[in-house]
Amino acid sequence: MPYITASDYLLHIQDMQIQQVINSNEAIRDAANLLAIAEARSYLIQKYNIDAELAKTGTDRDAQMLSTIIDISIYHLHTRIAPRNIPELRQVKYDNAIAWLKMCAYGEITPALTKIDPTQGMRTRFGGNTKNINQY
Known about the structure:
Blueprint: H1 15-22, H2 26-44, H3 50-54, H4 63-81, H5 88-106
């Protein structure tokens, strides 16, 4: 089951409007979902176990993460129609979504996602090479 379902869009956009944007072609919405997920994943993959979050379904999903991905997806759907005539609301929501992802990536805010554990048991050696004798 995919991370985003068709009913998840209803909080962000009316069903009639989404049907106009995708021309009743569900493959277009699925492609926009994959693009939005890939974009969000690229920001969060270094610090968070994003694949575990994307495997969740239903109410187990993080609401903020879901909302962010849907905003990005709707923005990409609008760029498909008229790249230079995107509604201002969609542009603002997209900018806010990217800003949220960047803040998560930089550690300014902490989403309710599972963090990646750093590798354990690695030793750090510091010092240098043995001193060379440069006298003859």
